[in-house]
Write a structure and sequence with these properties.
rod-shaped, 117 residues, mainly alpha, 3 helices
Amino acid sequence: MIGDKNRVKQWGQVLFFLSLVSTNVLAGGDKSLSEKADDAKVLSQQLEQTELDKARQAARDNSTREQQVLKGLQPREWESDQKEKAQKQFSERESREEKYLREAKEAAAQERKIPTP
């Protein structure tokens, strides 16, 4: 759809350019061939400059869209908060397990006194 619109614009510009050239050729019957060539060259340069400006604008627009997409791909603040929270919980769980293992080893290492009946 967008490509069709661009084609219409491009053809419109080409037709406009050709109409200007043909108008100048028909109206400029008293102009010399070199003057007509100069006029055509000026019109051609103007058209080329217009196309270059459009290409530059399209490149800027593309760059802007690309930056917006990349910004959307970067991790959001809540994601990093959740990751930090999960890491903290994991560390706490690991330290609790180590504590229970240490206490179990200490209890196993103690001599048990069995009361004599």
